[in-house]
Amino acid sequence: MAAESTAFTLVLPVLPLDDEVVLPGMVVPLDLSDAEVRAAVEAAQAAARSAPGKPKVLLVPRIDGTYAKTGVLGTVEQVGRLADGDPGALVRGRSRVRIGAGTTGPGAALWVEGARVGEDVPEPLPGQVAELVKEYKALATAWLKKRGAWQVVDRVQAIDDVSALADNSGYSPFLTTEQKVELLETADPVARLRLATQQLRDHLAEQDVAETIAKDVQEGVDKQQREFLLRRQLEAVRKELRELNGEQDGEESDDYRARVEAADLPEKVREAALKEVDKLERASDQSPEGSWIRTWLDTVLEMPWNERTDDSASAYDIQGARAVLDAEHAGLEDVKERITEYLAVRKRRSERGLGVIGGRRGGAVLALVGPPGVGKTSLGESVAHAMGRKFVRVALGGVRDEAEIRGHRRTYVGALPGRIVRAVKEAGSMNPVVLLDEIDKVGSDFRGDPAAALLEVLDPAQNHTFRDHYLEVELDLSDVVFLATANVLEAIPEALADRMEIVRLDGYTEDEKVVIARDHLLPRQLERAGLDGDEVTIDEGALRKLAGEYTREAGVRTLERSIARLLRKVAAQHELGRRELPFTVREADLRGLIGRPHHVPESAQDPAERRTAVPGVATGLAVTGAGGDVLFVEASLADPETGAAGLTLTGQLGDVMKESAQIALSFLRSHGAELELPVADLKDRGVHIHFPAGAVPKDGPSAGITMTTALASLLSGRLVRTDVAMTGEVSLTGRVLPIGGVKQKLLAAHRAGVTTVIIPKRNEADLDDVPAEVLDKLDVHAVTDVRQVLELALAPATNGAAPEVPVAA
Ligand SMILES: Nc1ncnc2c1ncn2[C@@H]1O[C@H](COP(=O)(O)OP(=O)(O)OP(=O)(O)O)[C@@H](O)[C@H]1O
Q1: Which CATH superfamily is domain 10-116 in?
Q2: Which of 41, 194, 364, 591 has its CA 20 to 30 A from that of 209?
């Protein structure tokens, strides 16, 4: 403990030290050319003349003009010249002095009273203090060794006095004046040593960090320099080689570095690209690796990393978007409405900074489902127009290899990025509309599952970091608007369908086709044929006949082709001088221009030529990938002598359809008698049911009542009415169960010229979707029991005479 004497027994001249501190035990030279220093020394010398001992001064640190409260009594050891020749004095610090009041003395110096600060260190040192002494010495030694001050190490090691050891820190160049004043004013020697130790420890730690940094920096610089030098050498070698081979200087390889550096790439992509450039520069010009890397770099450089089209004003003006849809497509009110809703929601969410709706809740992806030629692809294109975005179509039909979607690994010979990456590249922007065409036709096999890769592409939670195997760097697909098309909903892999919002396009009525042809197909084909709208027109009657008798399809693709053929003929005739323009094509001209129609309704056929002109043939309605269609079911009984027993089914039927045939047969076997059918005929006789268009695979239960009707007609010998078509599943008890695709089937019935349609009662609600103009022309019967079907469909018995077949009006 420091014991302090309060008796101010000393009277000393003050020697101010600016930004310097002298602690007891230190010997320092002072410059006498400084007036205050000189005044103090001279005053001390004057006083010493009348007292014993060396001249004494009070060394007091002064910071910004303020004196410390404690000074050090110093003795002037010697007066002479400093190393630079200026007059100087050598002063030794002796002991701490507490400064008292000012007083007077000889000379110009400031005189004060002082009291010696006593010091009290316990003997022997308690363990803690001894440890502290050890620590201080170890730290001081470490520091001194770093500076190579070996002599000083020994001196410090030799100090045993706690106070002197702490004051030794006064020499430390790394301490600030304030830190030294703190040491000076800490009277307790143990506390002071603790402080000095802490200061030393902090400094060493700081120094360590600084050194590591310095070392790292140095190493970095070395590596860069080495790399730079090596590159220069490599460049020189390459240049020599090129000259040897007579090539031009300054070709691509070095170019890639510049191109990558100049390109607007996201940081991670740039890093990856530069890494490849490094590899390229090391690879020899002819190595295959070099050419892979170049192809990869080309792909990366061609990607529109930071390109995006401005969402056109119309995307944010939903009315404008709707106008675009209306202008480009006739009809399709429901579909356009649905697309408009989709755009509106998207707009509102983006205005609120929300992402696309994702996951299994659907909504992220619109899927347009319907038969060919109903405008799915062209609607997708219209969506892009409406949003002011680029449009790219990705054909997925027949894709079985996951790598088609996600790319091949680069080590693969002839590796390519997947279709998604190629689509974005083709679009030249990161926010195009991408139409995944025929998504129902992706398959999967041993080469992986493309549908799984598509799931990732379509999932908003994942697609902002889509990773193509070839590209290897992440691609953000979150701004891409994905649309999908499919012919058959059931064929879309279920997990994918789950993520889609299904919009159905079931096909057009004849009236709609006429409008589409007049407003869209004809103008487009006129232009293709190099004709003007006022040179050739096709009147409505002709268009109707084209739609009704020259084509039989749900969409308008063949219709468009027929119009094109017609216009080519007219153009050619005109060029050959055989036809004057302007010319209006009328119904009567069609035959002369493009030949006879291919699709005459059954009802318009000669009765003897009709499919249903013999018992055992019934007209069914089905939905295929091409839309709705009529199909004729034929049944026959084998000769008991020559034919095989049992049920034979032909026409590429699926399992469900086969079972449905069994049910129809079983129903007749058990209920035939009550229907007054000669079911005994069925005994021991083989039954054959055939679905023509034998090459087209068919499945599903909806032909149940048609098969029952065909068999009943066969057994009874009653013909099936030509104007009747039917659809419905049959149960073992003869109930008629609901089926799907009512709208498509009714459109098909109407196209084929059928006038009476039988559907299951439970499908009545589906009639709401059927266009009124079609319903008006059809006599639709909703039934619950197959007996009603037979009543409606079978023509009256003819008793062996030529059957009288009702003909539709
Ligand atoms: N409602 C419509 N209004 C105007 N044009 C239409 C309409 N529907 C179809 N078209 C035209 O019919 C043609 C065929 O359509 P598109 O190719 O889009 O059919 P799709 O349904 O995509 O067929 P696929 O399934 O075979 O791809 C296109 O030229 C399209 O512009």
Answers
A1: LON domain-like (2.30.130.40)
A2: 194
